[in-house]
Amino acid sequence: MKFTIYQSSRQGPRAYNQDRLAYSYSKDALLMVLADGMGGHRHGEVAAQLAVKTLTEAFQRLALPTLPSPAKFLTDHIQQVHDMIENKRQMDDLIESPRTTIVAAIIQRNTLYCAHVGDSRLYHFRDGHLLFRTEDHSIVQSMYRKGLISKEEMATHPYRNKIYNCLGGDNIPQIDLADRHEMMDGDIIMLCTDGIWNEIDDREIKNILISGVIDETVVHLLDMAEKNSDQTGDNMSVIGLQWGDRQQNPQAVSTITMPLDQTTTIMNPTTRPAKLPGAPPDDLTDDEIEKTIAEIQAALTKPKTF
Q1: Which of 39, 117, 221, 260 has a CA that sits 20 to 30 A from residue 164's CA?
Q2: What rounded mean pLDDT belongs to the chain?
Q3: Dihedral sign, CA of 269, 275, 276, 282?
Q4: Which of 52-66, 152-166, 198-212, 274-288 is least confident?
Q5: Is residue 306 part of a domain?
Q6: Residue 173 maps to a domain
Q7: What is the model's pLDDT at position 259?
Q8: What CATH number has the domain bearing residue 107?
Q9: Would you state the pLDDT for residue 5?
Q10: Is residue 231 part of a domain?
Q11: Confidence at residue 41, expressed as pLDDT on a 0 to 100 scale
Q12: Residue in 132, 133, 104 with CA at minimum distance from that of residue 33
């Protein structure tokens, strides 16, 4: 495989960043995963971090060098994240569990597999055209699909940021598995949170991404989203991929000499500061987030007692 990939996240006007993102690759398979912790619920960043860690750790175990079924991998492990959160909620008798969206993609044998829950998106561009975009699990998307509002009304509707499907919610998540897509040299894939697409329309996203190499265009995209964002904006996160090496980018990754039993994982670094004096009691540090995730993972392996 040959590809150029770049990921980054910005806090925006929010008090802290609840987005989490990562990519992982073996000799013959590539995983990209992005999760947006839901700020209206307790500890959305915990759910987002759990989602990213669960998928990347499973990929590291199983993609040596390929997955038997990429589609099954995505649906099984996304569901597992929800089950782990629900198990923690029941064990600790929590009134409300942490929640997150997720979008994840695998490329294997020049084929793209994608699954998502919520309103974090995947875009697939080829030769300056949008081939595919995931459909948000949002109230306004549902209303538009039923013909109740127009596409123009979606952008300003008071429910535009409300979603009906997530991990950690009260209902079993609807995991939306897209049709498989063939990848061709020069194709661009982008995963992003609503902090990007709320601030930049699809046409402008396309124009930015096709204007240069991916490690530069992703930065341009984030700069524009941050410029357009106001005090009600959100965290902004992107994973961008250019498939092949049509542009002969010196940052391109080639796995041709990679050992069959090896994987590489790059987690986007979080910049959460240590807990400040006077911070709300619910404001977790990175160490506290990791401790909570370890407890959730351990709880899943404990035998049930009846």
Answers
A1: 221
A2: 89
A3: positive
A4: 274-288
A5: no
A6: yes
A7: 96
A8: 3.60.40.10
A9: 97
A10: yes
A11: 55
A12: 104
Integer Cα distance of 160 and 162 in angstroms: 6
pLDDT of residue 305: 45
Q: CA 17, CA 39: separation in Å to the nearest integer? A: 9
Residue 29 included in any domain:
yes
> What 3 state SS string does the chain have?
CEEEEEEEEECCCCCCCCEEEEEEECCCEEEEEEEEECCCCCCHHHHHHHHHHHHHHHHHHHCCCCCCCHHHHHHHHHHHHHHHHHHHHHHCCCCCCCCEEEEEEEEECCEEEEEEECCCEEEEEECCEEEEECCCCEHHHHHHHCCCCCHHHHCCCCCCCCECCCECCCCCCCCEECCCEECCCCCEEEEECHHHHCCCCHHHHHHHHCCCCHHHHHHHHHHHHHHHCCCCCCCEEEEEEEECCCCCCCCCEECCCCCCCCCEEEECCCCCCCCCCCCCCCCCCHHHHHHHHHHHHHHHHCCCCC
Interval 11-41: pLDDT, tens: 998 888 999 999 999 999 999 999 999 865 5
Q: How confident is the model at residue 299 (pLDDT cuts 50, 70, 90)?
A: low
Residue 84 is predicted with a pLDDT of 93
- Is the Cβ–Cβ distance between 260 and 39 less than 8 Å? no
Instruction: Quote the percentage of the chain above a pLDDT of 90.
Output: 67
**Tally of domains within the chain:** 1
